[in-house]
Amino acid sequence: MEDKLIRLTVNGRDEAVVIRPLATLQDVLRDTLELTAVKSGCGQGGCGSCSVLVDGELRLSCLTLAERAEGAEVTTLEGLNETNAIVPLQQAFVENYAAQCGYCTAGMVVAAKALLDRNPAPSRDEIVEGLSGNLCRCTGFAPIVRAVQQAAQALSDTGEEAS
Amino acid sequence: MPELLRPGSIDEAADLIARHGAAASVLAGGTSLMRETYPSDGGYLIGVDRLGLDKVVSHDGGWSVGAAVPLSVLREAVPIAALQAATREIGGPAVQNMATVGGNLFARAPFGDLAPALLALGARLVFATAGGETTQSIEDFYAGWADGAPPRAGLLTRIEIDAPTGASAYMKCARRRYSTPSVVTVAACVEKDGGTVSGARIALSGASAHPFRCAGAERAVIGSGLDEAAVTAAAAAAESAVEPQTDSVASEWYRRRMTGVFVRRVLAALA
């Protein structure tokens, strides 16, 4: 088994990366491209801290083989705004104290973006379901749900996209 | 380290599975297999992402669902209550975008919560083998499981689902609301003639080594009006049919008790 060269688009940039056999998308994003907002939590698909968008869909980078992401468009937290400014969704997390230790936060924001892209005006139950694959062991989730509610409200007021 | 092979055709994939036998594992969405694969393992991972198995075809009598269709796509494409409920009860949104219909049918207990819905709907499974295509009922597929593991039947390529002739319902008993293994999961599809049940399929997962149809519970309700006595008899039949394990999710005792409770609730929803 040999290393392979794959091409993919990450946060709008075309990348060509050499991957080891069975490398995960998480390995490529964190270790090769140094996009460390992608957290390495459980490695089992249980915590959601490695959440990214692949072709606009929420995925777990720890369970995705890099080879199978060839040609895909991948978005991490770093790619939510190309000028690196804070987006309304992140601002809502700040204002609602939705981050404590912060380890889950990047995955939460990405999962919330996937939800709001699909459903710009979610009910509280829909927010809870949309974030159900992301674990937070600090906040008790309530401030996170409030942040997403506020972001959805702000987006409907301004007519902007989530990021 | 296992070697990843990504065949470009179904025939090639079926040949690889036949050639490598027990050393081959089929890799679909990866949500179960990736976490069980270690660098120290040998063997082969046969990727099915280049086989065109990711489509749902709707036809006059029902749906033909590719084995590599993600659960979130199934939910949008096939409007059957029990099936749509099942897809929301497996993992969170990211897992539902990755995990496939076919892959979930091979999940080990207490995972594999799509199966009871497909058992209740009388689905058929189509396999590609080195000798050609074979079709078997999903019941026969699970009857072939031994020691909680599936038989080597070739490559599952699609799942045939007929449009249901009755109403269906699905409920999962779990320790929290989302993204959690099953204590027990119950699905049923009931046909009625007037107020009388003329046909019923009642299926369970989570509380036995593999998903199964509960013939005793079905007999208890066929010919009844889903009245209290019939539902009580069905719940009792299901409680005695399950063979629950004790694990970190639930004890044998609790799984058995919840089997009766959830058979009752599912049948009440269809009464």
Strand and helix layout:
The complex is a heterodimer of chains A (163) and B (271).
Chain A: E1 4-10, E2 13-19, H1 25-32, E3 51-54, E4 57-60, E5 73-75, H2 88-95, H3 105-118, H4 124-130, H5 142-158
Parallel strand pairs in A: 1-5
Antiparallel strand pairs in A: 1-2, 3-4, 3-5
Chain B: E1 3-5, H1 10-20, E2 24-27, H2 33-36, E3 44-47, E4 56-59, E5 62-66, H3 71-77, H4 81-88, H5 93-98, H6 101-104, H7 115-120, E6 124-129, E7 132-137, H8 138-143, E8 155-162, E9 167-174, E10 182-193, E11 196-205, E12 212-213, H9 215-221, H10 228-241, H11 252-270
Parallel strand pairs in B: 1-3, 2-3
Antiparallel strand pairs in B: 4-5, 5-8, 6-7, 6-8, 9-10, 10-11, 11-12
Helix pairs in contact in B: 3-4, 9-10, 10-11
Would you mind describing this structure in some detail?
- The complex is a heterodimer of chains A (163) and B (271).
- With 163 residues, chain A is an alpha+beta fold.
- Chain A has 2 domains: 4-79, Beta-grasp domain (Ubiquitin-like (UB roll), Roll), CATH 3.10.20.30; 88-158, [2Fe-2S]-binding domain (DNA polymerase, domain 1).
- Chain A has 5 helices and 5 strands, in the order ββαβββαααα.
- Chain A has helices spanning 25-32, 88-95, 105-118, 124-130, 142-158, and strands at 4-10, 13-19, 51-54, 57-60, 73-75.
- Chain A has a 5-stranded mixed sheet, with helices on both faces.
- In chain A, strand 1 and strand 2 (13-19) form a beta hairpin.
- The longest helix of chain A has 17 residues, at 142-158.
- Chain A is globular and about 50 Å long.
- The termini of chain A are far apart.
- Chain B is an alpha+beta fold and 271 residues long.
- In chain B, helix 2 links the parallel strand 2 and strand 3.
- The termini of chain B are far apart.
- The mean pLDDT of chain B is 95.
- At the A-B interface, strand 4, helix 3 and helix 4 of A face helix 5 of B.
